[in-house]
Amino acid sequence: MTTRSTWNAWAAGREAARLTDWLREISEPDWTATVAHPLFDALAEGRLSGEAFAAYMVQDYGFVDPFTALIGHAIGHAPTMADRVVLGQFMGMLTSDENSTFQRTFDAFGVPEQVRLAPDYLAPTRDFRGLLHDTGMHGSYAEMLAVLVVTEWLYLEWALRVTRVEGLHPLMGEWIDLHDNPAFRDFVAWLRRRLDEEAARLDEAGFARMAERFRETVARERAFHDAVHTE
Ligand SMILES: Cc1ncc(CO)c(N)n1
């Protein structure tokens, strides 16, 4: 259940209960299935072919496009300059370093121009794009933070979990590094803290919408990775 009273009951029995820990718990088994996804082990252990990695990155660029737009919406909806600065700096990384990783991956693995311009998105990619777009257009700031917490915290968790082999393709190593570095850890910690704070200000209906958004995003993450990992 995603009501505030369920959260309050959960928190009552725990010391230093955190909203985002509860949200993660009510998103099981999808949360753990995504963090433990075999795609990430194959990637880190050098068992993913260049072709499969490029295909994943093509689908993921279809995620990153509306995700970047969602950050733009969040920057616009943020209550303070302090939030805009943190989100804006993350947007800067996304549109420079991370965007470059995608472009160089497409070059290195020979993704044709036609595929870059008009990718054939899998159904779960399209669903995820729809969720990101809808949250940006119609969601509250707390809902936007909920989506960002899921997408970034999940990626941090798998990147921390995997063990990479020596001699891994540099672009695959770069993809792991983008999600396992001190700045990214700080960003995830900040997102979690801000969601904890913003959720306290929501009314009952807004709280339930935020929690539903969190759960739906975790489900979309799992479906996305199941669809791209076909080997
Ligand atoms: C599907 C997906 N979720 C999360 C991230 C991290 O931003 C990503 N690149 N792709």
Count up the domains. 1
Distance between the ends: 35 Å
Low-confidence stretches: none
* Proportion of residues in helical segments: over 70%
Query: Class in CATH?
Result: Mainly Alpha
CATH topology: Heme Oxygenase, Chain A
Strand content: under 5%
The number of helices is 12
Order of helices and strands, N to C?
A: HHHHHHHHHHHH
Largest sheet: none
Question: Topology of this structure?
Answer:
Blueprint: H1 4-12, H2 19-26, H3 30-35, H4 38-44, H5 50-77, H6 81-108, H7 113-117, H8 123-138, H9 141-161, H10 170-179, H11 182-199, H12 204-228
Helix pairs in contact: 5-6, 5-8, 5-9, 6-10, 8-12, 9-11, 9-12
Bound molecules: 4-amino-5-hydroxymethyl-2-methylpyrimidine (HMH).
GO molecular function: thiaminase activity
Keywords: Hydrolase, Thiamine biosynthesis
Family: Belongs to the TenA family.
Tell me about this structure.
It is a single chain. The chain has one domain: Heme Oxygenase, Chain A. By secondary structure, it is an all-alpha fold. Helix 5 (50-77) packs antiparallel against helix 9, helix 6 packs antiparallel against helix 10 and helix 8 runs antiparallel to helix 12 (204-228). It contains twelve helices and no strands. The protein binds 4-amino-5-hydroxymethyl-2-methylpyrimidine. 4-amino-5-hydroxymethyl-2-methylpyrimidine is lined by residues 60, 63-64, 151-152, 155, 221, 224. This is Aminopyrimidine aminohydrolase. The active site is at 221 (proton donor).
